[in-house]
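Aim 2 progress update. The chain analyzed this quarter is reproduced below.
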Amino acid sequence: MATSSQRPERAYHQDYICRIRYENDLPPPPVSLKMLDIPIDGLDYYASPGFASRLHRSQPINIEADSELGMPINLVGMPGVFDGDESSIQAPSFIPPIHPKDKNLLRPLSELGKPKYQGGGISFLRRTEYISSATARARTEDGSKSNAKSPAPRPRKAVDAAKDEPINVLRAAIRGFDIPHSEDAYTGPDSKENLRGLDPSAADLEAWNNPKHPAKSSLRALESYPILPDLQAIPDIGNYMIAKFTANPTQLVDKYDPRLDVGMLKPNDPTEATKEEYQAKLAAHAANPASNPHPGGMAINWNFYLAPDEETAKNLKRKLDVDDPDRDDPGLYTSQSNDGRDVFRVNHQRVYETGRSTAMDPDHAYKEVAFALHDGEVSANSSRSTIPSNGSLPHGSKKAAYYYPIAQKMQLKPHRSKNLAKLGVTTRIEDEDDEMKIDAFEVV
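Predicted structure tokens:
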């Protein structure tokens, strides 16, 4: 039983108000309802194959298509296809620019669908203030806008215009080298030959001594490597090329073939027709770079060589490794030449031709590089013969991240002119490749 000190529970009463603005009262049916038995024998007629055939004949096709329905499969008429030139049936080397009218078809999925609602008055609603933006909700009872003050804008930091001066920009760049090599920092007066860097702040020294990840502050750096060029490994042309096979170059399909680590590519001298075509493309690019992209490297043929077995590939790889202490062991050789010398023999596999090729911009020669991390550990048993006569350290003896510039990327596809000649499809056989082909190499 409730006592007088307890307050009775307060009841909340709420009415649901529904108002019908537009009424459409239908009159009752003039007769009483009755179930009718309607025959459905026509279902068999519409489901029969004959109905679909007659419908197909009565409705003509509203498209104009050729005999191949827009997908040509007849090789007759394709220029050069029977002479080994498959460029007419392959995708173009350079993707044409997208027309402005077709850019809407390439919009991502996040931009498709219904547009987001934007606040504003809606004409067919009576009380639009209930669904309006936050500005309408901030109105007071008398209809005036709220006089709540907006937050004060943050004061902007003063920009020191002197930092943008060329001399100060150069000093800041020198400071970046002085922090890791403080013993070599120049502290004398400024001159035409030498320039002092800016004094490093405590934050700069802390960032160098304790580097932090820009996005994950919980990560900790374990090692740091100076970036240096590997001068002993850079070839005479000054850069490297990346070659990618369009098909498996060996018969081994279930695992990686270790012989590819020491595979060799020998370029063939381009023909005069190839040189003239390449020079014409370069001239067209120089005249109109917007319409004629850079042709890349010259399309030449390559002879591919591989070791005959995995044991020869393993020993040849050790022979080429300058950090291997036993690289000069005579027992690594697996063959002998005609004059009795110990050699490695690599055999010719097949001829490849250059497919898609991309050359780097000469103005940005180091846009793409390859890195090799060396910890600087030299074996105590390594021979002194690996140290050059000029007294410089052997490759890998200094801890660094060595970089190798990449100047060209290309795809290598099998040379198919001879295969088509064997099948009798064409009578053209390029004897230039046979003349320049070497059946085997002997590596000393």
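DSSP finds nine helices and nine strands in the chain. The mean pLDDT is 77. These observations will guide the mutagenesis experiments scheduled for the next reporting period.
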